[in-house]
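Researcher: Quick sanity check before group meeting.
Model: Go ahead. Protein one:
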Amino acid sequence: MQVKPLKIAAMTLALMTPALSAQAERYAFITHAVDGDEWWQTMRNAADLAAQQMGVEVQHFNPTNGSLDEMAAILNAVADGGFAGVVTTLPDAQKLSESVVGIQENGSDVIVVNSGTVAQADALGAVMYVGQPDYDAAFAAGQRARADGVDSFLCVNDRPEVPAARERCLGFADGLGLDLAGRELRLSDASDAASIAQRLADDGEAEAVFTLGATAAQSALQALANMPADRTIYHATFDLDEVVVQAIQDGRTAFAIDQQQFLQGYMPIVVFANLHRYGVLPANDIDSGPGFVTRETLGLIASHAGTLR
């Protein structure tokens, strides 16, 4: 199931429709998700579950191809939509900050989720931040890989235009005690398994592949499946889906960093509903991760992979 692409003009008209003019308990949920990336569907499902349980309305929006310019246009359109609150990712604070501030100036509260940092959310006046610190999570992953004997690596960066993506590669390198220079493969398409395979063939010393999301993980696993039989390459990744869960079960992936996107979708809607009904708000931001999923810890996670995990 895909997140529906946004048509800016159509959305603007819909937001101005009198039937949707009542602000109370209407929330917009905006991400930088690319259409077809199933990892984000878990976040959307969680937000919808919270909306059902809390008895509120949530509308979802995302840029069709992950364009940050299109995302800024979405935020600007939503600012005039009369929402009580807006939940948004913040993949590039510099590019999106003006739009986020504009939402608040029009009377809507903002919660930042998933990307960006607590400091950036605070600077923009957001109610709170729900997510995981990308660099810290990747650093811990690098330390874990180092303990497993990894001495060299390739980081597959499938979102090079997003600053947080490079923070993930940098954190992993630092956790291993290695320099990132020369060890980052930048892709414009996360499904480009051929480029990963070619880079690994050219770099015969890479002992590990680190991917920044579930779609890129699938591509890496495809590339690794075609490696020569005498070459074993360690794989670790951010994020889970059904393919990554199966790879962990099979021993092809050492671990996945679980930022628990369920909480990133669920908690903002619950927080907003209680804030606007009762004026209550948690005193702290919410760290949804990182957690580390291994073969030993899969358990209940496997049964919900791709839907709520």
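Researcher: Fine. The other one?
Model: Protein two, sequence then structure:
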Amino acid sequence: MTTLKDNRPRHQQIADWIRDAIKEGDFGVDDKLPSESELSGRFDVSRVTVRRALQTLENEERIYRSQGIGSFVKGGKAVQNTLAMNDFMEDMKLNSLEAESVVLRNEIEPAPPAAERHLKLDPGTRVFRLDRLRLADGEPIALDYTWLPAFYGQLIVDFDLAKRTIFDILENEYDIAITAGCYFLHAENADKHQAKHLNLKPGNALFRMDRVSYTIKDKPVYYQQRYYRNDKFMYRMRVERNKDGSGTDQSSMPLREIKAKILKG
């Protein structure tokens, strides 16, 4: 059994292990990788975690998967893509901070228009709403409003939502993989409710991040609005331009990296 470290998400470490094995020649082009079950046993993780690792490698074009048969090493030059879709706890751990959450609201309500649109719901559909204050090393850093279709809401409602994330519950308790996300980034001013919980004054700047998270076949699982303190948070992005200097089409400047960075002091 291979022991994983606590300072990085498990699926990323498994993906690193497979990348290294391919680089060292342990697996050649078109060689079959260990099965999900074998990898799950080797690293003592759920098969959902293994699937996230394999999905990462497939997105990088390092492997290809054949339904019912397995995963295989892909030929040609791999595309390096270090994008990671983390939950709040993972982001805080990567910043060496202790994450905490306080549940402020936990109820069923009619979906607001934005949630209807992103979750592909009929008007008037009732959804599960979860509001949480997010803390890093005991200091308020963000405020979340999350809406889930009733099916997913009833799966998480009985868990301790102050200590466990939606990712964690769905993936490790129900084997429902979160496979993709769509992000919308905004700048806004804090209203009275947000200012109160984030220890700010009304009108102070906030960094707003909306996210729609999806499971297999692009089925939306939840829509979330997260409001970060502008003085405590930033995203760092890295893009690369073609070596020949031509950067005119969309494929010429691929997004290589996006990381959450907590501002200290």
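Researcher: One line on it for the slide.
Model: The two ends are 41 Å apart (CA to CA).
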